[in-house]
Amino acid sequence: MLIHPEWRVSPRVHAAMTTRIGGVSPPPFGELNLGYSTADLRDNVIENERRTAQALGVDTEAIRWVYQVHGNEVRHAESLPVNAPLGGTEIQADAIVSRTPGLVCGVKIADCMPVLLAARDGSVVAAAHAGWRGLASGVVENTLRTMGVTGERVTAWLGPCIGPKAFEVGEDVRAAFVSQDSDAAAHFYALPKLPNSDTVPSPPKFLCDLAAIARQRLAALGVAEVVSSDACTYSEPERFFSHRRDRTTGRMAAFVWIE
Fold first, then answer.
1. Which pLDDT belongs to residue 134?
2. Alpha helices of the chain — where are they, by DSSP H?
3. 3-state secondary structure of 246
4. What is the pLDDT of residues 147-178, one digit of tens each?
5. Which residue from 143, 113, 133, 219 is spatially nearest to 175, judged by alpha carbons?
6. Per the confidence metrics, is the pTM higher than 0.70?
7. Do 64 and 105 touch, CB atoms closer than 8 A?
8. Is the pLDDT of residue 1 over 60?
9. Confidence band (pLDDT; 50, 70, 90) for 89?
10. What's the alpha-carbon Rg for the chain, to the nearest Å?
11. Least confident segment among 1-10, 109-118, 196-205, 237-246
12. Which residue in 75, 83, 98, 218 could disulfide with 63, CB within 3.0 to 4.6 Å?
């Protein structure tokens, strides 16, 4: 059910990410769907959330969520309300920072990349939902700024996301990154042109390495210790939900907190 980062941080810091295994939801949301915005039965998601909290060893009321909008806003866990049923909230953001022991930062994913950050002394932690839009608009940079520590004091974990052999994007996505940092071009791989494209022009397509771009941006912030799961959500249907692969699907979640 859970994947745990193998990173060097204080033993006070705990972190995990769910897979799709171990819940009660039927297909296409099977099994451990944590997405309250999906068409799954609400009672299923409530039970899945209860099982997840039990596996984490926390109370569901300790978990803090935000309404994710693929942006770059960051919230303090201390300012968020007690977890409502199914993690329901109208507070928009894509990252949560906590300095309070016992408050659990949670983000939901189904191809986007979860980025967990922790000061190695265990003083502050954060969880960010980093799809390409959020990553390009600075969600990681804003999260580290909100943590209030230098990158040299932080370790990052990049959780399972859609991998570089599956994440096909257009020129707009490439331009969003390359316009900010020309070195980002190294993480886009041009796909062959379609047959007859000389007579019927088609827009260029690329494969994008989202995790490599995140590493590049973290390095620019001084974060040298970056651990990646290297797992591809798209390519492992037995373990992970994938919106790009299935469209109608469930949601996983990644968590980090201070004991």
1. 98
2. 42-56, 132-137, 139-147, 171-178, 210-220, 243-246
3. helix
4. 999 999 999 999 999 999 999 999 999 999 99
5. 133
6. yes
7. yes
8. yes
9. confident
10. 18
11. 196-205
12. 83
For 16, the token pair is: 């995990």
Q: Sign of dihedral through CA atoms 87, 88, 91, 92? A: positive
- Residue 188 Cα distances to 8, 45, 71, 230, 232, angstroms: 30, 37, 22, 17, 17
Residues 223-232: pLDDT tens digits? Answer: 999 999 999 9
Handedness of CA 91, 241, 116, 169 (dihedral sign): negative
In order of their start, the domains of the chain are: 2-162+221-258 (3.60.140.10), 168-208 (no CATH)
Q: Which long-range contacts (CB under 8 A, 24 or more apart) does 37-46 make?
A: 37/251, 38/248, 38/249, 38/250, 38/251, 39/248, 40/250, 42/85, 42/86, 45/86, 46/85, 46/86
Residue 256 CA to chain centroid, in angstroms?
A: 12
| Host H or E run for residue 114 | strand 113-119
Whether 171 contacts 203, CB under 8 Å: yes
Distance CA 17, CA 32 (A): 12
Cα–Cα dist 8/248, whole Å:
36
- The three-class DSSP label of residue 3 is strand
Residue with tokens 């608009």: 137
The model's pLDDT over 171-212, given as tens digits with 9 standing for 90+, comes to 999 999 999 999 999 999 999 876 665 555 678 999 999 999
Instruction: Report d(CA 197, CA 55) in Å as an integer.
Output: 52
